[in-house]
Amino acid sequence: MADPSSGVPLLDVNRDNRPLRDEFVEALTGVVDSGRFLFGPDVTSLESEIAAYCQVENAIGCASGSDALLLPLMALGIGPGDEVIVPSFTFFASVSCITRLGATPIFADICPDTFNVDPESIRGLITDRTRAIIPVHLFGQCAQIDRICQIAGDDDIPVIEDAAQAIGAAYHSRPAGSWGDVGCFSFYPTKNLGGMGDGGMMTTTSAGMADRLRLFAGHGMRPRYYHQVVGINSRLDTFQAAVLRVKLRHLADAVHNRQANADRYTRLLMEANLVAADQVVVPAVDKNAFHVWNQYSIRIGEGRRDALKAYLSERGIGSEIYYPVPMHQQECFNYLGVDPSTMVETERASREILNLPIFPSLTESEQHQVVKAIKGFYAAGAKAAA
Ligand SMILES: Cc1ncc(COP(=O)(O)O)c(C=O)c1O
User: Fold this and answer.
1) pLDDT, tens digit, for every residue of 335-361?
2) CATH classification (class only), 251-385
3) CA distance 139 to 356
4) Catalytic residues (predicted)?
5) Residue 383 bears catalytic tag
């Protein structure tokens, strides 16, 4: 049980995993006894289960979400001279997969309400060098993927969905990872379907693409010791697959808890008058989206975000900034020389966003504690000003 005197962690993986311990031990014991640490039956079963879950024909395991993004670009033959459109407001891996291949990321701005990439921004960036678009379903909510696929389809540009944070999310009731040419998932422990280490998965309806993804993930080797292309070694190991199969069985419950936590935060923040007073902007839910709440992201304006984060931290309450430095401002991407006037909403989000604890086993009393502390921060500010 959570101890109310000990603050609120941003995330408590152990608390989420503890009730499943016996199931993990049984599944892992099965792997130990089988001796099939790579390409074991759990990997194949997980691939089938994720394919069914995402309503696609094929799912291919790989070593991480980062590889799940890199491999489709390799399979598409993307390289120097090619452009790939991607939001700047995302995790590094959405972009490094492009530059690693010598291609050029072209940064799109975001919609201020959802933090997701703006389809109109994408439309304006398409050139005859555009070889792919990578929309990111940030924080567990799908980008406007119907419009993005339509814009891409007009020019026959492949769409690679970065669904690392959004397994189980949907748009117009159609799952994340089933819209584009390839869907990319991460099983990093903080993700909604989090493993006990690294892991990733790619989904696709195309048998041909699935075949190329497997080829590139296996050293480009087919048959054994004959290399058709220069691939990489990217495998999901059987231990991870066994753990993930256990967690997949409980994913619907975990998502339900995240949704309940999000609804409760929004209600509590409104009841505390923080929203009406424009002190906190609560996250918007697109009416077409089934949001799975990997993150609950509030906005704190007027340059007070960092002070609030420090105030919460002093009281043992975890919060985090995803993301403090957008990709176009990263030192390693300076050479791209991006014009900041094209990134207005991205830069504002990185100054204002604050992510609160939202993990499935977060308790109601912990949420009250978080909201009370935010209220206390503003009350202290008002007192100091008086
Ligand atoms: C949006 C996004 N893309 C890609 C990744 C990369 O996933 P991984 O850490 O499994 O390589 C992550 C997570 O870390 C992510 O949040």
Assistant:
1) 999 999 999 999 999 999 999 999 999
2) alpha beta
3) 12
4) 191
5) no
